[in-house]
Amino acid sequence: MDYTALKKEIIEYSREIGIDKIGFASAAPFTELKNRLLRQQELNYQSGFEEKDINKRVDPALIFDRPRSIIAIALAYPSKMKDSVKGKKGERRGIFCRASWGEDYHVVLRDRLSKLEDFITSKVPEARFRSMVDTGELADRAVAERAGIGWNGKNCSIITPEFGSYVYLGEMITNLPFEPDQPLENQCGTCTKCLDACPTGALVQGGQLNAKRCIAFLTQTKDFMPVEFREKLGNRLYGCDTCQTVCPENKGIDFHLHEEMEPDGEAVKPLLQPLIHMSNKEFKQQFGRMSGSWRGKKPIQRNAMIALAHFKEEEALPVLIEALHKDIRPVMRGTAAWSIAKIGGEKAREALLQAKEKEVEPQVIQEIERGIAALK
Ligand code: B12
Ligand code: SF4
Ligand code: SF4
Questions:
Q1: Which domains, and CATH codes, for the chain?
Q2: What CA–CA distances, in Å, run from 214 to 171, 233, 242, 276, 309?
Q3: Which of 147, 274, 337, 362 has a CB 3.0–4.6 Å from the CB of 23, allowing a cystine?
């Protein structure tokens, strides 16, 4: 088999099926990454969403029989909405990060990888693959970096010269020995814009993230949001784009190459108040196809309450007060108490005093008492 010729054919075919960048890498163990992952674990800097078995993460041979190479792909997503919706007083809106716009990227990239698998099988029937996007064992960024898709920026993102960092990543391990591509040189230079702009100091140093402080992570947790971070959240409902929007490599970057990735304004910038009392069915209807709905409605609703406090949206007081009195979930009642206190005023104080009378959950009582104290 002429693998150089096949590699060329794969590259050509990848363009036809809407893969924006493709690269080839060896399937050797990722030794540098192993030390990094162990160090991150030691420091308690991991999010908990990563694959737990570090050995599997860094050695393709542990998850695939005799791997010979890895094919990495990248698909560019839009950074601007064509028809943006705007929030106004009384009708405030939250925001989902760009990586959640349009159809869930796992579905889109798996489709491309599956087409690629079929194409390669039609040329080499004995070809074997293991494709993955995000949820697989491998570190997608480490694979992309090795395959020359982009460099690992100080903001931790893989930055491509063509599409900036607004790319999704995926890969397939194969038993075919493709010639590897060369990694790109890191172009960050002396720039530190992402480190300076991160609202929580989650970027400990260039290329190192304390995920526990990262807003992208915090928006996905289901418990109470630690108080320290609530005011940093702004109107973010899911994810955070700050360290990418400030990046000079993303200046003017806005690709609309995939119809599936076009955002629906009402879904990615939804009105906040209706979210607070949304049913599961309504939530699924409005957000179900987006990757940002994977943790369910609870974190999004909690974040919506925090966003209403950020806007000091007095007109939202009735909705928040209703949640404080009636929501069966303590996280919602407690967060409502915090938001009500932040919005402030006599109505807010009365509602908190009333709720204190009948609340039984210690954490919620604490939130209510803190709120009352702040309003004195
Ligand atoms: C867990 C996870 C998160 C966590 C933790 C993120 C993190 N930085 O570790 C949270 C929830 C915070 C998160 C947030 C985001 N995520 Co995320 N996430 C993942 C996931 C599942 C695992 C990441 C992981 O293993 N992290 C551990 C760290 C240590 O490794 P890494 O950053 O992935 O890899 C690099 C470093 O290890 C570095 N490295 C290794 N050794 C050394 C040594 C030194 C000295 C240095 C400097 C660096 C270094 O090199 C590796 C490759 O470049 C991947 C999918 C996957 N299976 O890989 C997606 C993934 C990384 N996420 C992605 C995206 C889009 C995001 C967000 C932009 C979403 C958003 N807008 O909110 C943010 C970005 C936050 C940020 N600044 O990193 C994309 C990245 C696309 C890209 N262009 O890079 C991925 C690849 C999903 C995908 N398939 O497209 N994510
Ligand atoms: S995603 Fe937001 S919080 Fe996380 S490192 Fe980037 S700027 Fe900081
Ligand atoms: S903002 Fe500057 S330092 Fe950060 S990733 Fe972009 S180029 Fe690199």
A1: 3-81+103-174 (no CATH), 318-376 (1.25.10)
A2: 25, 10, 11, 24, 20
A3: 147
